[in-house]
Amino acid sequence: MEDHTEHVCIICGHAKEEGITIVSQFICQDCESEMVHTDAEDAKYHYFIHQMRQISMQTHV
Ligand SMILES: [Zn+2]
Questions:
Q1: Of 1, 16, 45, 47, which one's alpha carbon is 20 to 30 angstroms from that of 39?
Q2: Where are the domains positioned within the chain?
Q3: Interval between CA 28 and ligand 1 midpoint (Å)
Q4: Distance, CA 60 to ligand 1 centroid (Å)?
């Protein structure tokens, strides 16, 4: 079974097999669940937004 493909997470930069793909960018399961639980007041939230903006820019090309 060669079905497991590793993708590089755009948040943590680690290669993971499990995760989600948003606008063709991969986010691993750990970061995805962390995003869901991240408080809007938390500094990490802004980091995620920053990463998302970069994705949008890349997609725009
Ligand atoms: Zn990750």
A1: 16
A2: 7-60
A3: 4
A4: 23
